[in-house]
Every structure is written in C-alpha cells, then in structure tokens.
Design a protein that fits this description.
alpha+beta, Endonuclease III, domain 1, Endonuclease Iii, domain 2, Nucleoside Triphosphate Pyrophosphohydrolase, 3 domains, 4-stranded mixed β-sheet, 3-stranded antiparallel β-sheet, binds iron/sulfur cluster
Length: 366
C-alpha cells in the first residue's frame, strides 16, 4: 500500500495540463455509471446534487428514481404539493433539502433559460452546489470543494494545514482555480470528486490505481495516511426525548406536524419533546405533550427506544403508549395536528427515528 512506499522528496507539482490530461482520461475510463451522468441537464443534476449532500450514492439512487418517476420534469416538481415532496423524501434525512429543492424548482421552472445567476439566487444553493451544477450543466469554470476534493488535494500537496482552516481553504481553492480547465470543467469537477470517492478514499487509498500517483506528495513521502490533517472534534452532546402514541377512545392516534423552520421541519411525528434532567421519562413525556398540544395524557407502557444521530447531537428517543384524558388539541408548539386511524399514518412523512413505531402500528405499510 502507498503508505509503505519508501519516503522520498516531495515531487514538484506538474503543469496543469498534465494534471488535467491524467484526471480527465482516468474519469472517462473509470467513472461509475450513474443515471444523472447519462443526462447532464438541469433537472436530473439538480435532483442528484440536492440528494447527494450528506447522503451516499447508493442511498440516494432509489430516491432519485422515485422522484423522476413521480415528477418527470422540473415543472412537475414545481407544481407539486410540498407535502408530497416531503413524503417522497421521507427517510433520506436532512429534510430542509427537500424544501429547498421544491422552492428552487418553483423559481427555476418558469425561467426560459436559467443559468448560474438564477441558480445562485435559489435557497439551499451554496458555493459547492452552484459550482457542481454550474460546471456540469452549463460548463461554468467554477471549482467544487467538498470532503472528497479536500482529501485528494491535501494528499496531493501534502498540505500541513487543516483543509477547513482559513489557510487550508485558501491553498486548496487557489490550486483548483488555477487547474480547472476551460473545456469540460464539469468533467474535471466530477473526476476530482470521483477520485476521492473511489480511489483516494479516507482509509486504504488505492494509490496503484490513481492517475495522480506520480504527482502526489503524500505518496512520494510515504505519508498518505497522514493527510488530510484532522482537527480534533468536540464530542456531540447526547440528548433524551420522549414521544407518545396517544390513543383516543375510538382508536385514533394523535399526530403533530413540526414547525416550518428548524430540525426536521414540516415532518409529522408522535407528540413529545426533549426531556429535562430532573424529570422521569413518563412525566417529561406528559409535560412535553402538554406544551406542544395543550392536552392531558396518561402515559402507559414503553413501546420502543430508538437511538438516532443528528449532525450536532445524538438522541435517545423513548416511545410510550398513552391515553388521551382531556383537552382539545391546539397547535401550541407545532404547525398542525390530527387524529388518524393507524392505517392512515403512513400517508404523512415521519422522521426516520419514528419508523420502528410506525411499523408496529401499521405493519403493512413499510
Ligand atoms: S492522490 Fe492518488 S496517489 Fe495520492 S494519496 Fe490519493 S490515491 Fe494515493
């Protein structure tokens, strides 16, 4: 493996033409056959880029196919109801992306020939997405920077700075701006990301199959595994929450829709909330439901305990079965509420952490 290579001097960086030729040639030969690559027009690329933020390709593929089947064009997506978009997105996580995708479709669909300027104004379009879509669809010479690209460049340059630091970002961007070709900037960007995803992987990179092996400083120094430099991360805090499957006498179950902003925006859930340190789970569950919907419940037995990770914290979610005692629901800390038959629950998009309970209540559904 490369890290065992005999240490030698850092090679001088090659001319940009040599880097371009080797990467583009490798990408033409070795790229994975992905559906959006067969059809690099705005809608398929937009869809794939929104889905691939924070999600692996193999997880995104079935969602991509379902979206195209249900909403074959940008106009179809723009005309869709947000609830239907969220429902189709269910399980993919980072739900704000679904709202941004829908809003972006609504803004771009009426434009005759949208371009980089129009895309830049859309919600959820940061420098990465703009560069990726802009270069692939319109041939804009905008370099992409993502985790894969950072890793490849950090190794190629044997970069001693953290890639996320100010100096690290500047060093990487300066090189990319210099190297990105006039012709086929989209293939260049995709080639770089593909190299990081399939060859220059975080662990055990396959340097023998790398088109840049001869140019790579980390490889020449025998220090591949030393790069990229990793900043020590603060541990994610852990939180506990409780949620109740609240039944009415007629068997219907109370569900609430989360606020339009913030974590898991617009999704539906079994009511509840975060637990405070000093309260029992059952008491905290009843308190959270009261604050969310203004109803009194009797908390009965535990139904399930689910562990879930978010980007900034991890969560243990305790589910209880419960009885409705009194009070008509009010949307105090939610957008809306509803009493549903168990068979109706699956019409609504729920966060992944609620799926084990949904499976118990509506087993035919998932
Ligand atoms: S850029 Fe190529 S040679 Fe360098 S570490 Fe990555 S896979 Fe190995």
């Amino acid at each position: 493996m490369s890290s065992h290579a005999k240490p030698s001097a850092k090679p001088a960086l090659p001319r940009p033409e040599a880097l371009r030729k080797s990467l583009l040639g490798w990408y033409a030969r070795a790229q994975r056959d992905l559906p959006w690559r067969r059809n690099p027009r705005l809608y398929p690329v937009l869809l794939s880029e929104f889905m691939l933020q924070q999600t692996r390709v193999d997880q995104a593929l079935p969602y991509y196919a379902r979206f195209l089947q249900r909403f074959p064009t940008l106009k179809d997506l723009a005309a869709a109801d947000l609830g239907a978009v969220m429902k189709l997105w269910e399980g993919l996580g980072y739900y704000r992306r679904a709202g941004f995708l829908h809003e972006t479709a609504k803004r771009l669909a009426p434009v005759q020939e949208p371009g980089v300027a129009e895309l830049a104004e859309c919600p959820g379009i940061g420098p990465y997405t703009l560069a990726a879509i802009g270069s692939i669809v319109w041939g804009a010479r905008l370099p992409v920077v993502d985790g894969n690209v950072n890793r490849v460049l950090a190794r190629l340059l044997a970069l001693e700075d953290f890639p996320q630091s100010k100096a690290g970002k500047a060093a990487i961007l300066a090189r990319l701006q210099e190297w990105i070709p006039e012709a086929a900037p989209g293939d260049w960007n995709q080639g770089l990301m593909e190299l990081g995803a399939t060859v220059c992987t975080p662990h055990a990179p396959k340097c023998g199959a790398c088109p840049w092996q001869a140019f790579c400083s980390a490889h020449a120094l025998g220090r591949v595994e030393d790069f990229p430099k990793v900043e020590p991360k603060a541990a994610r805090p852990h939180k506990h929450a409780a949620a109740a499957v609240i039944r009415r006498k007629d068997g219907r179950i109370l569900v609430a829709q989360r606020p339009a902003q913030g974590l898991l925006a617009n999704l539906w859930e079994f009511p509840g909330g975060l637990l405070l340190k000093e309260e029992t789970r059952a008491a905290g569950c009843a308190r959270a439901v009261r604050e969310q919907l203004g109803v009194e419940i009797r908390v009965d037995e535990s139904l399930a305990t689910v562990e879930h990770g978010f980007s900034h914290f991890t969560l243990t979610l305790h589910f209880f079965s419960a009885r409705h005692l009194k009070g008509a629901p009010e949307a105090l800390r939610c957008q809306a509420w509803n009493w549903l038959k168990p068979s109706e629950l699956r019409r609504l998009p729920f966060p992944r952490a609620h799926w084990p309970v949904l499976e118990k209540l509506a087993p035919e559904a998932k």
